[in-house]
Write a structure and sequence with these properties.
It is a single chain. By secondary structure, the protein is of the alpha/beta class. The chain has a domain at 37-163 and 208-256: Decaprenyl diphosphate synthase-like (Undecaprenyl pyrophosphate synthetase, 3-Layer(aba) Sandwich), CATH 3.40.1180. The chain has nine helices and six strands; from the N terminus they run E-H-H-E-H-H-E-H-E-H-H-E-E-H-H. Strands 3-4-2-1-5-6 form a six-stranded parallel β-sheet, sandwiched between helices. Strand 3 (122-127), helix 5 and strand 4 (154-162) form a beta-alpha-beta unit. Helix 1 packs across helix 2, helix 2 (56-77) runs parallel beside helix 3 and helix 3 runs parallel beside helix 5 (135-147). It is globular.
Length: 270
């Protein structure tokens, strides 16, 4: 990510970005590292709507507003990559009218956010079985991904028709084909090679996973990539999740000691 992240993002206050402080007027921990890659399971749209006597699609519409707010905040803070679990492989089994409404929301998001994505030098990418998306969604999505490919302020990755197990299986098949043709030897297959064959190979390792709505599971999301991520489960429903909630999550991340299987500094000193 080659550009200076002190550049003001669109529709955000223009004041300089001080170390340890976000442009939205809230403080992070000075001197503590930011997560390079934040992944979010955006959960609770349906329950949010049900609790208010609304249709499920109303929850999805409100959740789309949270996407817009969180992407803006992540860009302003200086997050390098943000991956959003927008539609899982298993979501195709939902009622057809809900699936159709979700595809329409995705179509509208790609069109309506195009200018902001381009103006803020955000690179849009997507992972998952994209061939399953309807053509009216796929065409503008492909176009925006192509047009934003050289943007280098932040990567926004949408997980669409995505499943972690499915992605791992595809990686294994790709490696197996290379073994079969003699391109690689079985003894060369290691963690790095598996990572390089995943759809997320261009993204930095996930540092922080956030799941909203109080559920405490990963739901087939980035199973390989979450190996050493910090997991944070929050009670807030996704339609209510906004910039302050993201900053709270990042502050919680900054207070954790990441050991990657090693001893903590205190134990190492003993």
């Amino acid at each position: 990510m080659g550009k200076d992240h002190s550049q003001a993002a669109k529709e955000l206050p223009p004041e300089p970005f001080e170390a340890g402080q976000s442009r939205v007027g809230e403080t992070l921990l000075a001197g503590a590292p930011l997560p390079r890659h934040v992944a979010i399971i955006m959960d609770g749209n349906g329950r949010w709507a049900r609790d208010r006597g609304l249709a499920r699609i109303d929850g999805h519409h409100e959740g789309a507003k949270s996407v817009r707010k969180v992407v803006r905040a992540a860009r302003a803070i200086g997050i390098e990559a943000l991956t959003l679990y927008a539609f899982s492989e298993q979501n195709w089994d939902r009622p057809p009218d809900e699936v159709e409404a979700l595809m329409e929301l995705l179509y509208r998001y790609v069109l309506e956010e195009r200018a902001e994505i381009m103006d803020n030098e955000i690179r849009l990418t997507a992972i998952g079985e994209l061939d399953r998306l309807p053509q009216f969604v796929r065409e503008p999505l492909d176009q925006l991904m192509a047009d934003s490919a050289d943007n280098d302020e932040m990567i926004l990755c949408l997980a669409l028709s995505y499943g972690g197990r499915e992605d791992l299986a595809a990686s294994m098949r790709a490696i197996a084909r290379k073994v079969q043709t003699g391109e690689i030897q079985p003894t060369r297959v290691d963690e790095r090679m598996i990572t390089e064959h995943l759809s997320t190979s261009y993204l930095p390792p996930v540092d922080l996973l956030i799941r909203t709505s109080g559920e405490q599971r990963v739901s087939n999301f980035l199973l390989w990539e979450l190996a050493y991520a910090e997991l944070l489960f929050v009670d807030t429903m996704w339609p209510d999740f906004r910039k302050p909630h993201l900053l709270d999550a990042i502050r919680a991340y900054q207070q954790r000691e990441r050991r990657f299987g090693r001893l903590s500094a205190a134990h190492a000193a003993d």
